[in-house]
Design a protein that fits this description.
This protein is mainly beta. The protein is built from 4 helices and 24 strands. The protein has an 18-stranded antiparallel β-barrel. A two-stranded antiparallel sheet has the order 1-9. The chain has a two-stranded antiparallel sheet with strand order 18-19. Strand 7 and strand 8 form a beta hairpin. Helix 2 runs antiparallel to helix 4. It is globular and about 65 Å long. It starts with a helix and ends with a strand.
């Protein structure tokens, strides 16, 4: 039986090799790491339009439709448009399989491995996918069906990201040098393949996708108020309508493990703890993000308005309330406040002139309306909200090359992404927050990691970032970055109870007092400053090199009064892809 299976796999591989020729056609989807996203955005800004389609990943059909809506008035824009159109290779066959392979060794060096970890800084290279090997298998049938699956070997995360040490704080890197080359690192091998896989079915303006892949909504350099690309993957189902240049819609369901399955037999689940005590237990309950995005364009595409609404829904018994599927039920009327967290955002983009884009986003996490318990009263929870504002500048050069720059500011109030934890103060219940639980298999033990679905630093933060660079579309991309953040005491695992009879304590951002324990010593604002340079060089059409150098300085690290600590981070990687 096993031998027959191997023969079938070998036969499929031979067929793929015989039809060698990687292309994108119809419903093929581009991974978020593909340059089509940054180049399409640059083309739109050069032409004086708001950002292109806001829900990602894109299909080849999406890219073709977006190119059709851009006239490309000058030679530089035309060259950039031609470059993007080259990513869409059509085929004259009804059924077309394809095969690809990628090799990507990476080396990371940290000068202060004992005090820094992968959550210390947004631009940390270890947040990137560092598979050393990817084998890609795909197929398309006309423009109506597409399928894809990869086989990956990698070290996507360092061990520091998975566990908490005895004092409760995250551990640092295990060594100054780390690499994703087998036998040359202490990091665990990830066998979580397929890391990316999807089946897409569509016709005319509609498509349905079931997939494991990275996803993202909206604009933003540091993140998004509702759904960013912070997760290594989502297991999701999406329904998308793109039948008009001026209107598009997507419903997305991303599925996670219910917290009841993450309880250790010896007590409450500790995020990042080994799963050996419970990973063999039967799964129960449901937990998923259900989001709706309405995207509208006005004034020949110069203005984009997007309304996003979502719930993080959970049920220990596995019951799904069908009312959550109504895309027009704003914040779902809070009728299921006990087992769901509602969040909505408004995005606005405007291009006043060519080469310049202004953007703004406002998000609200639950909202007490008249007749409900208002924040500060017994039984109520606190409203959470956030702001994002920024501008992007793209200046074209000859041949489709361009300068680019982004300045961005983000504010998240203390209680955004966090909801009530229930009446039991010892209960570690993450079910009502916008925090994911993603499982990674490999190494000496499987892990469950937790990350925000949106802005990667979560709530209680003020952050600003600046980026400026130059892209030569045929050979290289180089950019410089500045980053600053003030972060209060409310973090990923902070418990937030309902307001008590005394009204509880409301904090301002960044928090200078711990609202859960006003007498706690950990009541300092943490300040982070980072400066760095990134560069990528395309040596050939198949071979590229990426490198980055960063200096990160943190004051009051861990929200404890202390002097500044620094880390110099260097990363270099080689990508060979065919």
């Amino acid at each position: 039986m096993f031998g027959k299976g191997l023969k079938a796999v070998a036969l499929c591989a031979v067929l793929m090799l015989l039809s060698m020729g990687v292309f994108s056609s119809g419903l093929d989807m581009f991974p978020l790491s593909h340059p089509v996203y940054s180049e399409m955005e640059a083309l739109y800004i050069i032409e004086g339009k708001a950002s292109p389609l806001g829900f990602k990943p894109w299909t080849a059909v999406d890219v073709a439709h977006m190119l059709d809506s851009v006239e490309a008035g000058d030679s530089s824009a035309k060259a950039l448009k031609d470059r993007i159109s080259g990513y869409i290779y059509g085929n004259d066959k009804d059924f077309a399989p394809y095969f690809g392979i990628a090799f990507n060794p990476v080396l990371n060096i940290h000068s202060n491995s004992s005090e820094f970890n992968t959550s210390s800084y947004y631009y940390d290279k270890d947040l990137l996918n560092t598979h050393i090997l990817d084998l890609e298998l795909g197929m398309t049938y006309k423009d109506n069906i597409a399928g894809y699956m990869d086989f990956s070997l990698g070290f996507i995360y360092s061990d520091a990201e998975f566990y908490m040490n005895e004092s409760g704080s995250e551990a640092g890197y295990s060594s100054t040098f780390s690499t994703n080359i087998p036998f040359l690192t202490k990091r665990s091998i990830s066998m979580n393949f397929p890391d990316r896989a999807y089946v897409a079915l569509g016709w005319d303006a509609f498509r349905a996708v079931v997939a494991r892949d990275r996803v993202s909504w909206g604009n933003g350099m540091m993140g998004n108020m509702l759904l960013g690309d912070t997760l290594p993957y989502h297991d999701y189902l999406s329904l998308t309508f793109t039948g008009s240049r001026n209107f598009s819609y997507q419903m997305l369901m991303s599925f996670f493990t219910h917290p009841v399955n993450l309880l250790d037999v010896n007590g409450p689940f500790t995020p990042g703890a080994p799963e050996t005590d419970y990973d063999r237990l039967p799964l129960s309950g449901v937990r998923f993000l259900l989001g709706h995005r309405f995207e509208m364009r006005f004034f020949s595409g110069k203005v984009m308005l997007a309304l996003n609404e979502a719930v993080m829904y959970q049920s220990e018994e596995g019951y799904v309330d069908p009312r959550v599927f109504n895309p027009l039920m704003f914040l779902h009327d809070l009728y299921i406040g006990g087992n769901a967290n509602s969040l909505a955002t408004l995005e606005l983009e405007y291009s006043p002139v060519k080469n310049l884009l202004l953007y703004f986003q406002f998000g609200v996490d639950d909202l007490a309306i008249p007749g409900e318990n208002s924040p500060g009263s017994k039984g109520a929870s606190s409203d959470g909200w956030g702001l994002q504002a920024g501008l992007k500048l793209t200046m074209p050069r000859n041949g489709g090359n361009y300068y680019y720059g982004t300045a961005e500011f983000i504010y998240t109030s203390p209680f955004m992404y966090h909801r009530a934890q229930g009446s039991d103060p010892d209960q570690n219940d993450l079910s009502l927050s916008y925090i994911s639980t993603t499982r990674v298999v490999g190494g000496s033990r499987p892990y469950t990691i937790a990350r925000y679905l949106s802005f990667p630093f979560g709530s209680d933060a003020i952050a600003a970032a600046l980026r400026f660079g130059y892209r030569d579309i045929d050979s290289f991309d180089v950019n410089a970055n500045l980053f600053f953040m003030a972060h209060g005491v409310i973090r990923k695992y902070s418990k937030i109870d309902y307001y008590r009879e005394d009204g509880g304590l409301v904090t301002n951002t960044p928090s200078t007092q711990n609202p859960f324990d006003p007498n706690a010593e950990e009541n300092m604002v943490e300040y982070t400053f980072g400066v760095g340079v990134d560069a990528s060089i395309d040596l050939t059409s198949y071979l590229s090199v990426e490198s980055g150098l960063y200096l990160i300085t943190v004051w009051n690290k861990g929200n404890v009064a202390r002097s500044a600590v620094c880390d110099m981070q260097f990363s270099i990687g080689l990508t060979l892809k065919y």
